[in-house]
Amino acid sequence: MILWWGKKKQPDPKTGETPVEPLKPGETPASPIASLDQQIFGNAPIAQPEPELGDDPIGLRKAAERIAAERAAEAAAREASVLHKLSEGLKRSSSRLAEGLAGLSKRKIDSDALDELEELLITSDMGTKVAARITKAFSKDRFDREVSGDEIKAALASEIAAILKPREKVVDFSLGPKPRIVLFVGVNGSGKTTTIGKIAAKLSAQGADIVLAAGDTFRAAAVEQLRVWADRANARFISKPQGADAAGLAYEAVELAKSENRDLVLIDTAGRLQNKTQLMDELAKVVRAIRKIDPSAPHDVILVLDATVGQNALSQVEAFRNTAGVTGLVMTKLDGTAKGGVLVAIAEQHALPIHFVGVGEKAEDLHPFSADTFARALVGLDS
Fold first, then answer.
1. How many CB atoms lie within 10 A of CB 26?
2. Is residue 3 within 8 Å of 171, Cβ to Cβ?
3. For a Cys-Cys bond, which of 6, 24, 110, 164 suits 371, CB 3.0-4.6 Å?
């Protein structure tokens, strides 16, 4: 998951003071930094200590309980909505699994059935190691007994979620040095520039002051695309002529952000093929340039992966980790492929947090990663 800035209230034009909304009965002061769950996706807020109300003569306790129940119901409804959207996006991947699982339902789970399950998981791009692990766990307490289709799906979702769960990690972009410098890397066509734009739009809407740097200087289209997103997000935009030195641009972007006291610098980079040494060396040069201003930077290096490439994504993770010190992942285009299972293989092989999954072109189609929700959507459990 990701933490965004809380919304900033605008100062009164006459007094110059920033208005503060009065607290509601029973409400406690909010943290100045609100989580993505609360601000964007509406998950239930962190529970506050319950006040000492004695016998509750004026019904405050009952009111608090009613409000808590309403909030829990709203959170459950929003979670169901996200699950539905992910399920729709992952329909190609889940359909492949569902077709194979249909042949296993209502029959005894024997050695042949387990072999079929393992093969199905391998062909779903989860890889041999993950397939063997899930099959072994699935056979526990189920061998030589008949299982229904829903039971198989639920069991698989549980095992997949267990692999994915350690990759859930909150990233608070308001912490650490200011400006916080975030480098986005990935190969051509991965959806990197669009992902940066979506993240910038969401952060800006929550009050973050952002510089967007168009470091993909080889592609004029990428520069213009990021310029459009910068306008939408009301972000500071910096670019150079086509073919300019990307490292120099990154240096200037960080320098500008520091001089203008900006919160964040989001830097796009050229799509680099992991087997092209020269291009990867240039990416390392960008990192060195940034560190001349801030030795601790970049504070985040986010690798954007295209789900449609399947198992090739594994080699991309390996290459970019070695070159740029990747700190987290985003996987896009899960709605356009039957290879969504590759995310499970990546999670099992690489101890990197997965920040987002993308299942569409709109900003709201970029979802913070949830192991349970993704696992259920992947196997076709939409409830």
1. 15
2. yes
3. 164
pTM over 0.85: no
Nearest-CA neighbor of 125 among 374, 344, 332?
344
Low-confidence winner among 42-51, 79-88, 107-116, 130-139 (lowest mean pLDDT):
42-51
Tens digits of per-residue pLDDT, 295-331?
A: 999 999 999 999 999 999 998 998 888 878 899 999 9
Sign of torsion over alpha carbons 242, 243, 244, 250: positive
Please state the φ and ψ torsions of residue 27, each to the nearest 5 degrees: -90, 145
pLDDT over threshold 50, residue 173: yes
Residue 168 CA, chain-centre distance (Å), reads 9
Report the residue count for the chain: 383
d(CA 194, CA 228): 10
pLDDT tens digits, 245-281: 999 999 999 999 999 999 999 999 988 766 677 777 8
d(CA 289, CA 209): 22
Whether residue 298 has a cis bond before it, omega within 30° of 0: yes
| Residue 35 tokens, joined | 């989580």
What is the rounded end-to-end Cα distance, in angstroms, of the chain?
22
* 378, 168 contact by CB (below 8 A): no
The closest alpha carbon to 200, from 332, 368, 360, 4, belongs to 4
**Both structure tokens of 181:** 């410098």
Domains, the chain, ranges and CATH?
175-370 (3.40.50.300)
Task: Give the CA distances from residue 224 to residues 63, 216, 241, in Å, rounded to whole numbers and listed in that order.
Answer: 52, 10, 11
The reported pLDDT for the residue numbered 75 is 59
Q: What contacts 211, CB < 8 A, 6 or more positions away?
A: 179, 235, 236, 237, 238, 253, 256, 257, 260, 262, 264, 265, 266
27-47: per-residue pLDDT in tens?
444 443 344 344 434 444 444
Q: Which residue has the higher pLDDT, 11 or 366?
A: 366
Number of H helices, E strands in the chain: 13, 12
Spatial neighbors of 84 by CB under 8 A, at least 6 apart, are: 382
Burial of 258 (0-12, 13-18, 19+ CB in 10 A): middle
- Name the phi and psi angles at 266, rounded to 5: -105, 115
